[in-house]
Amino acid sequence: MADFLTRHTKDPAQKKLDTARGRGAYEGFRRALAMSRQEVVAEIDASGLRGRGGAGFPTGRKWSFIHAKEGQSVYLLCNADESEPGTFKDHHLMTFDPHLVLEGVAVGAYAIGAHRAYIYLRGEYASIAETLAAALREATAAGIIGQSCLGSGYDLSVGLQLGAGAYICGEETGLIQSLEGKRAYPRVRPPFPAVHGFLREPTVVNNVETLACAARIMAEGAEAFARLGTRQSAGTKLISVSGAVERPGVYEVEMGYPLMQFLSHEAGGISGGRRLKAIIPGGTSVPVLTAEEAAPLTIDYESMLSAGTMLGSGGMIVFGDGTSMPHALLRIAEFYAHESCGECTPCREGTGWMAWVLRRLLAGEGRPGDLGLLLRVGDNIEGRTICGLGDASVQPVRSFIRKFRQEFEALAPLPVAFPAWQLHGHGPRTGRFGPPVEEAAQSQPVEGPPDYVL
Amino acid sequence: MLTSEGLEEIEATRAEEPSARHALLTALRVTQRERHKVGPEEIEYIAGLLGLSPAIVEGVARFYDQITASPTGQHIVRVCGGITCYLSQSDRVAQDLKGFLGIADGEETSPDGEFTVRLVECIGDCDHAPAGMLDDRFVGPLDERALRTISER
Asked: Is the model more confident about A420 or about A39?
């Protein structure tokens, strides 16, 4: 296990400023303040830190996109909405080391030239907001955050905002909208938040863990972080593991750590002496892995990508044998149907359709071609929406059906006919409206009722 | 309509933010906490308080799950229905809890208006599956002991 971020999270006294400072809290911020903004951005860039919220975008690069014009204000927003099913790492970090999170916010704000930052927490995290508020009061009273932070002449104020129950607020532009007191309908990009963000001013939105990493990098130096992990995935990652394991919880591992070792050592093995059936490695929005696929993988961006999935948020959900994958998928599909914000038609309607068709399959009322219909609805959502929720909703449906096909076929009335291109994934797509022509021509001949019954 | 404490919280947010609109989410949260609903009356009130159109207030209010048009009980128990908790049968837990609290099938709130039980989407406490919240507190795993603690409250 690694402890770059979580060295002190086991001690409840870490929440107190005195204890945390005795262990070096805010020394990273102090070091940053002694440098120029550009130097801080360069340091984070050199560390190889990539966003920990799910997308994995290089943090230093994101910060370097901020070019405020004369008279513009810059904002740093810390995304603590953490609503991806299976993800609770930020919950853990904010609860047990709030000063590390605040330090990260301060470092990020300084690096992009922001004098106002917000931490946006999901509504369910009201008790965590109180922990952060208490830490913020201490840090303000000690002159660390506020006017002339640590005597440097740099001013920063930090606001806390609680959401009120909407998954889409974790999407960066949805978060901005919500913070502005609006329905959290994501915005069309471009313009990106770096140009037109909060209040139409240059804005960076970073995940909690990303900012905590930034604070530690400033304290220990880019080299200390870059030394950890793999070439493309520097540092460590918080993994929140839940489901069929003996010891669910949050664990910090060095990037490149073997997945199976993580399951057997950190997570304590599959619960009840069962066998591993499947893993969703990074929250429900990434494709599921079969036990066989998962076996050779390591916990880092490139290994997950090589297996056609993503490290995502590090919200790992483990399924033991005996789990009904169609039932699990229905629950996931219902989540997206419920949380689709309704702004884009393909997602609003499509997520509902996917849940509805799965429900009827499980009720024994499936129709011929329902599996093909599910996949086609997914194809019609993907790439046609403003934000990533639509794309995300398709990943579990597609991967569950392809990888656990027999379980789904057992539910569907025969013949289960769906074209080969849907089973084997897309080749290079020729357009937005279907499979490449040559592949479609090679599809299996369909017998019985037509493939899609709409 | 609101307590002085609640009003102060809204006022403090409003004073800190660039416009009244930015205090709307906080106003909705405070109102929900104190009135257990944000219905037409509350919408008119908030609109007046912040100088916004009632249509804007209602539009935002109806977007968020924790802001409800019809009243909830004094206490709200959220049972997590996220995928991990679902696999540990949280839907049955919710049923059991409703039974404990005398909440009829198809209803969410106990007849005495004390408790509302709601099966919700992932609450981000998956290592305590089946996870749950009593008001703002995480109380998972919802085993028999936790259920009894809740019902005795």
From this structure: A39
Residue of B84, B85, B118 to mutate when probing chain A, most A C-beta within 10 A: B84
Residue B122 belongs to some domain of the structure:
yes
Burial category of A228 from C-beta neighbours within 10 Å (exposed 0-12, middle 13-18, buried 19 and up): middle
Asked if B51 is an interface residue toward chain A (Cβ–Cβ < 8 A), one would say no
Q: Percent of chain A, pLDDT > 70?
A: 91
In a domain, B21, yes or no: yes
Question: pLDDT-based confidence at B150, cuts 50/70/90?
Answer: confident
Which residues from chain A sit within 8 angstroms of residue B28, using beta carbons? 164
Nearest to A181 among B22, B84, B122 (CB): B22
| C-beta atoms of B26 and A162 within 8 A | yes
Give the chain A residue nearest B27 (alpha carbons).
A181
| Nearest-neighbour CA in chain B from A368: distance (Å) | 28
Q: Are residues B82 and B146 in the same domain?
A: yes
In a domain, B113, yes or no: yes
Q: How many inter-chain contacts (A to B, CB under 8 Å) are there?
A: 121
Q: What domains appear along chain A, each with residue ranges and CATH number?
A: 12-226 (3.40.50.11540), 237-320 (3.10.20.600), 325-441 (1.20.1440.230)
Binary contact (A166, B64; C-beta < 8 A): yes
Task: Please report which helix (H) or strand (E) contains residue A252, including its range.
Answer: strand A249-254
CA-to-CA dists, residue A398 to A31, A95, A151, A425, angstroms = 47, 36, 55, 9
Rounded to the nearest angstrom, the minimum Cα separation between A164 and chain B is 5
Contact assessment for residue A36 and residue A44, using Cβ atoms and an 8 Å cutoff = no
- Contacts of A370-375 spanning 24+ positions with Cβ under 8 A: A370/A412, A370/A413, A370/A453, A371/A401, A371/A405, A371/A408, A371/A409, A371/A412, A371/A416, A371/A418, A372/A416, A372/A417, A372/A418, A372/A419, A372/A422, A372/A451, A372/A452, A373/A452, A373/A453, A373/A454, A374/A401, A375/A401, A375/A418, A375/A422
| CA dihedral for A64, A65, A66, A70, sign (positive or negative) | positive
pTM: 0.92
pLDDT tens-place string over residues B98-124 = 998 999 988 999 999 999 999 999 999
pLDDT at residue A414, as a whole number: 58
Cβ(B87)–Cβ(A245) below 8 Å: no
Question: Which pair of structure tokens corresponds to residue A48?
Answer: 């190889």
Identity of residue A56: G
Give the residue-averaged pLDDT of A283-302: 97
Report CB contact under 8 Å: B29, A284: no
Q: Do A124 and B127 touch (CB under 8 A)?
A: no
d(CA A361, CA A373): 12
Residue A228 has pLDDT above 70, yes or no: yes
Share of chain A above pLDDT 90, in %: 88
Q: Is the pLDDT of residue A176 over 80?
A: yes
- Total domains in the fold of chain B: 2
Assess whether B51 and B87 both reside in one domain. Answer: no
Question: Which structural domain, as residue segments, surrounds residue B15?
Answer: 4-61
Chain A nearest CA to B84, separation (Å)? 5
